[in-house]
């Protein structure tokens, strides 16, 4: 079920919250934890119960392998077990997410006729696979003997982060589970959780879903777009993605706080970035952290010379692209970010500082163009959209302006009706100002103090969002 | 302010806001669900599934139509003239059996003396779980058709209601006179593309055969839904006459399914046979089957260029037929009709189609 649905907000969450805290009154806290794990699994199975055995077997196999790693003494044998574990996780992801993409290309290149699996992608597989790879690697490096199966299952399945991240490090959750003070209701955490959840819900339901309507309209009617319309469409998507993802992260953090679990920040005003490296420190922070610790560093990071550093940087961006989706548009999106990261790294060696506005503009412009690849269903759409965005042939003056210009200067411009209302540009200016200049929700959460104005503010946000919940849509990060 | 007070204040304030909005919406009633409004001139701009519950409650009728788009073009004024009494057409495009059943149930609930339900039996409508209703983007608002008052909050506290209210007020401000007359609502086909033999030929040659019929297309699924959605109402309302009919789809539409997989025909014939056998037990049910009526179904002049829908004069023709002809009278007669229908499909040849406008002209003259 979606966080932005009546069934979640009015039924699932209140029941789980109430029963969890009731069960915490029992002496044995494990009963409450078992209940929450069961609730998490119900939440996961709500979409399709067929996915349940996949996540259950993934948890069981990874925990068994980690138990083995904790017991084995010999380094060689430990390495073998770790390799098996990583191959299992990558294999699971590869089978469900990439097999058809790979075989489609093999068929196309070699004229083969290998049949495709047409499997539905198990929900959240990209997220729980990475979390468990990190767990195996850390068990290999430093051991995790103190973890119980129950705590481990709690960490993997905890519903606030289960479906679309953040990609939580096992210690971040399990250390909090081992802190006895977290097994009682804390009104401060609940108030903070409510505050940031309400902000996230509003971002998703009101802002992102409204922007999505324009983005979808534009992409679905790409042939009718003028140059201006194509920028309206792509900007709508750029901002939609921002509010969708940051809204989701806010909700996840808020829900975690209801259970006294602090989830890591995943999003920190990425459109304020002044360079591409800065962007990746602010966008999907926990994914970047995973790639840095479990791919970039093992590849040698920046310790093996410039060429290797550039290569490693490129690799993590390339893999990040593939992680987001099994398709050429995502591959190219990853390559673009990889090349941009390498160029920036090289540029940094000259120690030249660009004016802030120029640096911001280059970064935003690049990220925006790259999102066209991310959003488009195929490369043909990318080509059409980019052509529209940059070809003067697609440029037309608005009808009224055309009439004035033709009358004054005797020109023969053809009047054109724009697909979108140009007032949207003004709206985008306001949105841009908010994402660039306003304090983000994590910063607001840090300074949150209960007060009448705040309560009125979040009550209003919640009520408006609840009213618009019937525009149910999926979070964009669900498919990754 | 303490955190506890903050939480309490949030609960009070948000509940207060929800109640406030709901009360306002109850008074304004943008979909005219609770009552006919005197507050402003209504315009019925909402999607059919949302507009219909209010109309079902507040219109005056003793006969109700429940159907898919095949029934959408029944004109109440024409039906009233032919049947006598007052009718209301509550057909919903692509409606499922459950949706049609909820429409009939709502009509029977608000009009206890309802004389007749005219119900189109469409294979599509029955091809699913008996409780199947349409989902996003136009979810079927079950809460507006059922008896529960509590779940009406979903109508009262909904952005869609605000949107419709806004459209209504704007229409009154700008003098928009569309969608004011209930009878003309949702009628379609006035500007439909014309059907041609080339189009039919292309349509049939593009049919992709499928290896196996999906379970939901089998007669067992169809009949289960029929029993739960139709027979249950027939049993509960013995004083109401239920006129069930199979709409006269163009013959090439049936042929396309036969080409897709011959089992479609076998399963559908089985379904029809079982429906007849089940229905004949009830004196308040009658069945009309127009699908083997060659004078209509082989004449592509009667059809819009979408290989599915007939023009609205065929709806008038159906009404006339219901008035002038008896329903299926015996098992033997129906077996003969089904055999005829089967042969028409299995022996179909595109050269058998004709384009002849006499029915159209006859009805054009009548109008």
Describe the structure.
The complex is a heterodimer of chains A (480) and B (367). With 480 residues, chain A is mainly alpha-helical. In chain A, 70% of the residues lie in helices and 0% in strands. Chain A is built from 20 helices and no strands. The radius of gyration of chain A is 24 Å and the shape is globular. Chain A starts with 5 loop residues before the first helix and ends in a 13-residue tail after the last helix. Chain B contains 17 helices and 5 strands. With 367 residues, chain B is α/β, with parallel strands linked by helices. The mean pLDDT of chain B is 93. Chain B has helices at 3-28, 48-58, 69-72, 76-83, 97-110, 123-126, 142-145, 153-156, 159-174, 197-205, 219-236, 251-260, 263-279, 294-297, 312-324, 331-346, 358-366, and strands at residues 63-66, 87-89, 116-120, 241-246, 285-289. In chain B, strands 2-1-3-4-5 form a 5-stranded parallel β-sheet. Classes of the chains: A mainly alpha (480), B alpha/beta (367). Chain A binds chain B through residues 6, 187-188, 190-191, 194, 450-452, 454-456, 458-460, 462-463, 466-468, 470-472, and chain B through 1-7, 9-10, 13-14, 17-18, 21, 136, 139, 154, 157-160, 162.
**Overall geometry of chain B:** globular
Briefly note the structural class of the backbone of chain B: alpha/beta
Gyration radius from CA atoms of chain B, angstroms: 23 Å
Q: Would you identify the regions of chain B where 5 or more consecutive residues have pLDDT less than 50?
A: none
Pfam families (chain A): MBOAT (PF03062)
GO cellular component, one term (chain A): plasma membrane
EC number (chain A): 2.3.-.-
Family (chain A): Belongs to the membrane-bound acyltransferase family.
């Amino acid at each position: 079920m979606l966080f932005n649905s009546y069934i979640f907000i009015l039924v699932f969450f209140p029941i789980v919250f109430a029963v969890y805290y009731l069960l915490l009154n029992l002496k044995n806290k494990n009963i409450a934890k078992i209940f929450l794990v069961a609730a998490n699994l119900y939440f996961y199975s709500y979409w399709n119960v067929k996915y349940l055995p996949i996540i259950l077997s993934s948890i069981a196999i990874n925990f068994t392998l980690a138990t083995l790693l904790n017991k084995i003494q010999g380094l060689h044998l430990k390495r073998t077990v770790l390799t098996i574990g990583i191959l299992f996780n990558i294999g699971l992801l590869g089978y469900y997410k990439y097999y058809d993409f790979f075989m489609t290309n093999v068929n196309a290149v070699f004229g083969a006729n290998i049949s495709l699996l047409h499997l539905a992608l198990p929900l959240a597989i990209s997220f729980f696979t990475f979390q468990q790879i990190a767990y195996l690697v850390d068990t290999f490096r430093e051991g995790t003997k103190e973890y119980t199966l129950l705590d481990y299952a709690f960490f993997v399945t905890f519903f606030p982060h289960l479906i679309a991240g953040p990609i939580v490090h096992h210690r971040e959750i399990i250390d909090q589970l081992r802190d006895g003070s977290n097994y009682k209701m804390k009104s401060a955490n609940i108030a903070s959780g409510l505050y940031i959840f309400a902000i996230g819900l509003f971002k998703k339901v009101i802002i992102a879903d409204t922007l999505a309507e324009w983005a979808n309209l534009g992409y679905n009617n790409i042939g009718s777009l003028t140059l201006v319309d194509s920028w309206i469409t792509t900007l709508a998507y750029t901002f939609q993605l921002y509010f969708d993802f940051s809204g989701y992260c806010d909700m996840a953090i808020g829900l975690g706080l209801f259970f006294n679990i602090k989830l890591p920040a995943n999003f920190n005003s990425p459109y304020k970035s002044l360079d591409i490296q800065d962007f990746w420190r602010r966008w999907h922070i926990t994914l970047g952290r995973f790639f840095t610790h479990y791919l970039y560093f093992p590849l040698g990071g920046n310790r093996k010379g410039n060429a290797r550093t550039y290569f490693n940087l490129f690799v993590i961006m390339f893999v990040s692209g593939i992680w987001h989706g099994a398709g050429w548009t995502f591959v190219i999106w990853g390559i673009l970010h990889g090349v941009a990261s390498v160029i920036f790294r090289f540029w940094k060696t000259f120690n030249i500082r660009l004016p802030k506005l120029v640096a911001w503009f280059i970064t935003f412009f690049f990220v925006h163009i790259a999102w066209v690849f991310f959003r488009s269903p195929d490369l043909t759409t990318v080509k059409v959209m980019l052509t529209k965005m940059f070809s003067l042939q697609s440029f037309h003056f608005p009808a009224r302006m055309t009439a004035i210009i033709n009358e004054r200067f005797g020109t023969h411009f053809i009047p054109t009706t724009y697909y979108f209302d140009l007032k949207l540009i003004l709206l985008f200016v306001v949105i841009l100002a908010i994402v660039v200049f306003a304090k983000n929700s994590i910063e607001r959460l840090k300074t949150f103090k209960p007060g009448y104005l705040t309560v009125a503010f979040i009550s209003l946000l919640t009520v408006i969002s609840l009213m618009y919940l019937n525009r149910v849509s999926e979070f964009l990060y669900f498919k990754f | 302010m303490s955190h506890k007070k903050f939480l309490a204040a949030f609960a009070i304030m948000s509940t207060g806001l929800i109640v406030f909005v709901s009360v306002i919406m109850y008074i304004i009633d943008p979909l005219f669900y609770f009552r006919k409004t005197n507050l402003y001139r209504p315009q019925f701009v909402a999607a059919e599934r949302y507009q219909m519950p209010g109309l079902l409650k507040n219109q005056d009728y003793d006969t109700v139509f429940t159907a898919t788009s095949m029934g959408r073009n029944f004109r109440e004024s024409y039906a009233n003239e032919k049947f006598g009494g007052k009718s209301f057409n509550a057909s919903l495009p692509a409606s499922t059996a459950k949706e049609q059943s909820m429409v009939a149930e709502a009509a029977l609930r608000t009009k206890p003396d309802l004389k007749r339900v005219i119900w189109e039996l469409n294979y599509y409508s029955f091809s699913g779980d008996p409780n199947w209703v349409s989902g996003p983007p136009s979810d079927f608002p079950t809460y507006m058709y059922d008896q529960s008052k509590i779940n009406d909050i979903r109508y009262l506290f909904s952005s869609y209601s605000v949107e419709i209210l806004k459209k209504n007020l704007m229409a009154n401000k700008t003098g928009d006179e569309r969608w004011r007359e209930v009878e003309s609502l949702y009628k379609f086909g006035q500007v439909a593309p014309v059907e041609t033999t080339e189009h039919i030929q292309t349509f049939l040659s593009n049919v992709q055969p499928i290896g196996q019929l999906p379970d939901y297309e089998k007669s067992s699924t169809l009949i289960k839904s029929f029993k739960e959605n139709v027979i249950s109402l027939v049993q509960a309302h013995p004083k109401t006459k239920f006129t069930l009919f199979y709409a006269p789809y163009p013959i090439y539409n049936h042929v396309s399914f036969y080409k897709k997989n011959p089992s479609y025909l076998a399963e559908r014939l089985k379904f029809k046979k079982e429906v007849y056998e089940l229905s004949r037990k009830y004196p308040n049910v009658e069945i009309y089957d127009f699908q083997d009526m060659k004078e209509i179904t082989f004449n592509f002049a009667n059809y819009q260029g979408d290989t599915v829908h007939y023009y609205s004069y065929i709806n008038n023709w159906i009404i006339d037929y219901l008035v002038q002809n008896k329903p299926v009278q015996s098992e033997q007669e129906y077996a003969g009709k089904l055999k005829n229908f089967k042969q028409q499909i299995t022996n179909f040849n595109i050269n058998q189609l004709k384009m002849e406008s006499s029915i159209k002209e006859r009805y054009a003259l009548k109008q």
